[in-house]
C-alpha cells in the first residue's frame, strides 16, 4: 500500500506537481535519517546527509522506473552517500588522526554525552569496526528490517552475498560485544 | 547437522526468519548440544544489547525546517553556474601558458646548476680514487672547479697565458668530460708523456689568481 502510494506521488511529481515531492520527503525523511545515523554514527553528519539524499533524489526522480520500492531506491542513494562520506572520513583520519578522535568524542549534545554510557560507546566501536559491506548489510537488515532481496538491490550484490555479509557482521559484533560484557563482569 | 552449520542458522532461528524445513533440524541439534545452546544464549544477549542502541535525534527544529532547507538547497543547485566570458577565458589560457613557461625555465636553470656541481664533484672523486694520479688530478680538479666557478660567477678574469693553459687541458679532456665519461678512465689512457705535459700545463696555471 505504501509502495503504491509512493508510486502515485512519484508519477504526480513527474507530471509537474512539485508538492508531491514534499509528500515523499515527509514520508521517508526520518527513516533515511535513522539509516544514515546507523551508518555514520554521528548526529550532525546524519542530519546533513539526509538533506543531501533528498536533493539527489529530486534531481534524479525522473529516472526512477518503479522496478523497486521508492524506499529501496532512496535508501540506495543514502547508502552510497554514507559510504562516500565514510571513505572521506577515513582519508581525513590519515591526515589528522587527532581531529577525527576529537570530533567523534564531542559529537552530540552534552546531555546526549551523559546518556551515552559505556554500552553505547561499545556498540559504536563495534559497528565502526565492521568493514563497510558488513556494516551496510547489518544496518539494512537489523535496523531497517529490509529483506535480503532488498539489501541485494541496494548494495548491488546477490542475495547470498547479502546473507553472508550479514552473518559475518553478526559474528563479529558478538565477539566484540561479548568481550565488552566480560570486561564489565 | 554439524555445529558449524547450526551456527550459521542460529541468528535467523533467533530472529524467526529461518525456513520451516531448517527449524526442526536446528531444534533437534540444540536439544543435544550444550555449546550450541550457549551460542544461542549469546545471540540473544547481543540482540538485547543492540536493541538498546538508541538514535540521538537531530537538533530542535531540524524536522520543522527540513523542507524549507531542502528546497533552498535544491534552488541553490538549480542556479546556473557563472560562465566565463571569452576574453576572461583567453586571459586565463595565456596566464596558464606563461606559468608553465616560467616553471619550465626555472627547472632548466636548476638542472644546469646541478650539472655544473656534478662536474666539479666528479673531479674530486677521481683524485681520491687514484692515489698515483692524486697530485696532478687534484690540481686538475682545482683547475676545473675554478673553471666552473668562473663560468657560473662570471666575475673572474684570466690572463692570456692562463687561458691558453686551460685550453690545452680542455683539448685533452673536453669531449669525454662533456659526455659525462669518468675522468679517471681518461687519465688511465694517457701516455706518461701526455700526463707529464698535462701536469706542466696545470702547474703553469696561477690558481691563486683564479681563486
Structure explained in plain terms:
The complex is a heterodimer of chains A (185) and B (211). Chain A is an all-alpha fold. Residues 100-107 and 109-115 of chain A have low confidence and may be disordered. Chain A starts with a helix and ends with a helix. Chain A has ten helices and no strands. Chain A has helices spanning 2-14, 18-40, 43-60, 70-95, 97-106, 110-115, 118-128, 132-143, 148-155, 159-184. Chain A has two domains: 1-113, Rna Polymerase Sigma Factor, Chain: A (Orthogonal Bundle), CATH 1.10.1740.10; 117-185, Orthogonal Bundle (Arc Repressor Mutant, subunit A), CATH 1.10.10. Chain A is 83% helix and 0% strand. With 211 residues, chain B is an all-alpha fold. Chain B has two domains: 3-51, no CATH class; 108-210, no CATH class. Chain B contains ten helices and no strands. Chain B has helices at 3-15, 20-32, 34-51, 62-78, 86-129, 134-153, 160-178, 183-189, 192-204, 207-210. The radius of gyration of chain B is 42 Å and the shape is elongated. Residues 148-155 of chain B have low confidence and may be disordered. The interface between A and B is medium-sized, with 35 and 25 residues.
Descriptive labels:
heterodimer; A: 185 residues; mainly alpha; Rna Polymerase Sigma Factor, Chain: A; Arc Repressor Mutant, subunit A; 2 domains; 10 helices; 83% helix; 0% strand; B: 211 residues
